[in-house]
Amino acid sequence: MSRELPLEIEKKLKRAARLEWWTLFWMLSIIGVMYFAMGSSQAMKTAWIEDTLSLIPPILFLAARRFERMAPTRAYPFGFHRIGSLAFFFAATALMGMGLFLIYEAGRALILAEHPSIGDVTLFGFDIWLGWVMIAALVYSVIPPVILGRMKKPLAHATMDKVLYTDADMNAADWKTGLAGIAGIIGIAFGLWWADALAAGLIAFDILRDGLRNMRISVAELLDGAPRELATTRVHPIVDELQDEVARRFPGAGVEVRETGRWVRANVIYPDRELSEAAARALLGDEAWRLQALGEHLQDLPGPQETAREKGAE
Length: 314
Hints:
Elements: H1 7-37, H2 42-53, H3 56-68, H4 83-111, E1 120-123, E2 126-129, H5 130-159, H6 162-172, H7 174-189, H8 193-222, H9 238-249, E3 254-260, E4 263-269, H10 273-284, H11 304-313
Antiparallel strand pairs: 1-2, 3-4
Helix pairs in contact: 1-2, 1-3, 1-5, 2-4, 2-7, 2-8, 3-4, 3-6, 4-8, 5-6, 5-7, 7-8
């Protein structure tokens, strides 16, 4: 089977790569604006860290795109398709770890009853409440990611790219971070000192939730689990479709399906286990036990018509 991607999928991946470069540009500008506006607000600090984390998925996507196209080698005979799975695992690990840290920070602020203060800042010769600057920065931090996220989601579905989907999902939901941050700042203005830490905790919980979900999916991929859907841990319908089709065309044969990045690798097993074990002993000698399954290509298996002719000849 060809290792080349269909032209339409390749075009979508190239467009996704361009959007990821734009994402890096806009997120770097947002990180700069948020850094200079965050002051002592815990919610602003958490939103700034989340924006910084948003750099990880696009960087991993661009890196994975470069490596997954490399030709197979003797050391890596199956190629580098699984680099996408590894990138997805790294992204999930970063999200989960940072979510736990930020929840700890927000909880500590609530327990210690820290009272953040928002003073004034001088801009163009005028004294302005820093809270307005924070709110303006949060509004700016929401607009580009939400637009880019909505543009990337259809591409992620078409190309079955989990890193791209994670990035798009984080971008598209960025409005929740902005809204929580604004609520925290307004709470401080009304004397509700706990509103800032509570808003930071809500943002952190959202980060942790995404990280845990993505971690479950990525670990399943790395453990040769059956392919999962993009946004959930449910097994992808392609598994049942493949198994049903193989059973229909090649009675008695079984199929093992696993995911390697955006690709699916199916190992079709002919039912004669004694033949497989004998072949393993002939090929590997004392190390035959290491061969878990001896697969066959679909075209090498007898189809329904050939099986019927063989039985008739007997």
